[in-house]
Amino acid sequence: MTSVQDVFVIPEGAAGALAELERRKFTAEEGDHLTLLNAYNAFVRYGQSASWCRNHALNFRTLSRAVSIRTQLKKYMTSGYWRNGARWSADGTYRSVRGDTVLHVHPNSVMFTRKPRTGWVVYHEMEETKKTQIRVLTEIESDWLLEYGHKYLDKRSM
Predict the structure, then answer these.
(1) Is residue 72 part of a domain?
(2) Which domain holds residue 40?
(3) pTM for the complete prediction?
(4) CA distance 52 to 72
(5) Is there a domain that residue 123 lies in?
(6) Is residue 64 part of a domain?
(7) How many domains, in total, are found in the chain?
(8) Does 98 fall in a domain?
(9) CA distances for 62 relative to 12, 66, 102, 110, 153, angstroms
(10) Does residue 89 sit in the same domain as residue 143?
(11) How many angstroms separate the most distant Cα atoms in the chain?
């Protein structure tokens, strides 16, 4: 978000004072980067709405661009890690897209206690202990796996 236009809209005059009050709602004591992250997370949480942005003195176009960049980054990760794709299973494990191996999320992962919204992830690392564990996971869209691994993956099994 630091490479796009200003996130906060600060008009002149009395409207500027109100906008400043709105901006403070997102303030993180640790600094500007985390303040921007707070604004971004709120934008996503409240449905990426233009009217919500107007009401909170935020730049809709800038925040929409940040969402787009985040999606692009996740697609780039998928392009490099499509071989490490996995789908969530109802038993709380994952199944690898290549070989249908049962994968367990490592307890240190933030994904350990939650199901991905999309049902799909790519992972960075796999280790064999008593069970096969995966670490450093990112939620993805299944279509991205097919886009990058279409020569090797069976669409019917996905």
Answers:
(1) no
(2) 13-58
(3) 0.77
(4) 24
(5) yes
(6) no
(7) 2
(8) yes
(9) 20, 6, 41, 28, 36
(10) yes
(11) 65
